[in-house]
Structure formats: structure tokens, C-alpha cells
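A further point concerns the way the authors explain their paired sequence and structure data. Showing the layout once, in full, would remove most of the difficulty. For illustration, here is how one protein appears when written out as sequence plus C-alpha cells:
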Amino acid sequence: MKLTATIEPSVLRPVPEKVNSSSPGAVDSLVAGAAVAVGLGMSLGEALGELGWGRGDPAAPGRAPGEHAVNDRASAAAAASAAIGERGILFPLVCFSTSEHALRVDRPRVLIVHVVVAPDSFKGSLDAAAAAEAIGSGWRAVRPLDEVLLLPQADGGEGTLDAIATAVDGARLHDVGPVTGPDGRPVDGHWLELPDGTAVVELALSSGLPLMTRLDPLGATTRGLGEVITAALDAGATSLVVGLGGSASTDGGAGALRALGLGLFDDSGATLPEGGGALMQLARLDVSGLRRPPVGGVRLLSDVTAPLLGPTGAAAVFGPQKGASAAQVVELDAALARWASLLARVPVVTDGPSPPEDAKGKTTAPGSGAAGGTGYGFVAAWGAALESGATALAELTGFAAAAASADVIVTGEGRFDATSLTGKVVGNALSLEAAPHTRRAIIAGGLASAPPAGVWAISLVELAGSLGAALDDPSRWLYAAGATAARALG
């Protein structure tokens, strides 16, 4: 008995198919073909061809384009079942109606995988949004029916503003105009307004290391950060989120607080110059002109756990990256100690929650060394709260909520190594609460360390064949990595 199936030559999603047959049992073969088509991302016509349907009489007279003859239903169904089993495709439940003359397969119901793609930026190559788009496009090319949610992430440093702006409906970017850059030259200032009145400010955009024409470890300042915060407060911000990563300075946040009205004087009463090196001459602070923080409080997002002082502090660990010599590291550490000793003596200026009694002068607090000690400065002067940037961004962007119902979580960064699991985006993504069946994946430019047990991982270097090839076209290889992940985890 021959079955003629009219196949609509549309693309990668199931469409209603009409089956004309004198035998209701013939629909089983077409159902199996539909399962293969949907599961493998083929059109139904392509799947039927793969299964050998229509072979033996391709030029049968009177057959319209897209019609296939099925001569051996049992063989076709067996082939379909084998293909389904080999590829782990869920056999569909099919709703169909019958009449005396026709069967209609309305729409195969297949396993739809809920995928959350949440990478950090691939520094020097792509920002987090572009990386997420490339990975998501690669996944959809293989599994077009899956629900793929793109939530680019950050950890308080580069890309924080963009990640939140992408994820939060109604967020508005404000252009402040020129503010003081880390080396004194003007740079463009921006802040993000969230629908609830929160202002999000990214230190790296106004006071970041890439903004320097030349490194100046003693003179670089965070003044521009304070000027952006001032603009947000003037606009009526009710709470404040500050991303602290990527700073060019080691001034303890003195420049930012000075822009907000804090007075810094030497023992002659002269105003101190900008920069962390000048803090060695600090003799007096005046908080009478310091602006009050917003009533909703201030959250500081940090990507590090460094304390303010000592061998693991702001100057020792991050000073060399900002151009500090060994002698300048010692000088900056001493300057920060002086800054902390005076700041600990002045009252906290706040209308919001005050810091714990022992936190104000606690230079050993994790994250107090973030952004060259800016974390400590805002905690001591404004009662701000230090938080993990990756954790806070997961909350603000909805990643934490989405992860709870995801089947697959795909994260990534430029280089995965042992530090990736210590407060970074990737480590946070792997630790988010999710369902027991949730699979997790890492896509990295390079894998310097083995991923945790049970985590699928792939590197762009592996796919491209070399680091140079991966860097030449990162979007291409992230797309390929997304497609590879879909085949492995879908």
C-alpha cells in the first residue's frame, strides 16, 4: 500500500501536515518522521529523505513538488525509531483528528529545552552581550524550538551597566556630559536609571584603567565617579548601585568623595591634590559639605575580596597593574592606612542603614580594597554595603530567578582558570540554585583549568585550532561553541 504525504517545504519548526491515506496505521511512519525532523532541526521533507521515503520512484508521474511516496512503512518507522534512539530525541505525543478520508497531524509536541545563556565579557574580544548573542544563535541553529534566554553578565567591573540595561525593562541611560577622567582629562559620564528609582553607576566608565593615556599610580583619581554619582543624586535617585571593578587609581575613593563634598586638607590647611600618593599628607577631613547618600542606601559591587591594606591589599595586589613600582606600592599602602585612620574618626554621613558597629574602620573587610580602596572609602564615609558583584548582577538581571527553572545554563568568559570560581561570573553561574536535572556548561576562550565535575566545557581555542584563530573571529567560534553545546546538551 502506498502513502502519499504532502510536505510543506518550510523550515525549522513543525507545521501542520496533511496525510492522505486509506490506512490510519500509516500515520505512525509520518509521526516518526516528524519527530526526527523536529529533533534534528530539519524540515520534515529533509527528514523523510534521510529515512529513505520516496526512493525507488522519484519521477513518478503526477506527483507534485514536496510529495513523497512511502512504500515500506515498517522500514521507515524502524529507521525513524533508530534515529530517535541514537540522538536521544523524545518521541512526540501527536494530536490528530480522523475522518473517513484523511488524517491530520496538527503539531508534534517535542521536548523544549529551556536554556539560559549568561556569559561574562570576553575581554579584549567581545562584550558580554555580543558573546551571549553569538552563543545563543549557535544553539538555535541546531535546536530552533528551544527557549533560549540571553542574560549577559558582569561582576561589578566592565560591562556592568550594559548587562543591567539589557536585562531590565524600562531602564534609561543618562548622559552626564564630560566628567573628570582618571588622569584629569574629560571623559563622557553615564548612569543608568532603573524603574524603581535606583541609579546604577559603573566606575570603569569614568575612572577606569583603559581611559589613561599613560599610567600614573600616584596621581590617578576617582573624581569622575563622584561627579557621575552627583548627577544621579541631582536627578532624584532614591538608591545607588556602584560597580567597582576596573579602576585606574589607588586613592581609596578619596577623589569620588571629594567630588561629593568631602574636604581633604594637609597640616597647613591647604587642599590636597588628587591621587592616592597625596594621602600621605592628609591631616584633616571635613564632612560638613559631604552630600548625603540616597535614602535607599548604597550597594557596592565588587569582583574581588581583597582587604584595604597589607600584602593582599589594594596597593600590593593591584598597584602593579596600574603602574606602581615596588617602592610606590609601599608608599600607596601607607597612604591608604593614613586615609583609613582619619576616615574612621569622622561620623558616617547617611540617611539610610548604618554599617555594623565594627565595620566602619575595618580595613580587613573582604572587598574593602576593591577599586584601589574605593570600597573602604564609601563604607566608612557613607555606610555603603559591599557585595559580590556577580551575585548582585545575577539578581538585578533576573539570572538567579531564570536559573531556577532552566534545563541548561551556559556561562563563559575569555579565560577559565582557578580564579574563575572565586567570586567571578562563571563561578557564580555554576553555584546558582537550580533544579536537579539542570546541566551547566562553560564556553571559554581558553581552558587553563579543568572544569568542575559534571560541568560540560569547551574552548574557542579547541574549536578554532589556535589562540590566534580564535581571537581573529571570536563571534564565529562562539557561534560554533553554542551549536556544539546544543548537540551535546540539548
Observations:
- Residues 148 and 275 are 46 Å apart (CA to CA).
- The longest helix spans residues 326-343.
- The radius of gyration is 29 Å.
- Confidence is low (pLDDT under 50) at residues 1-45, 50-109.
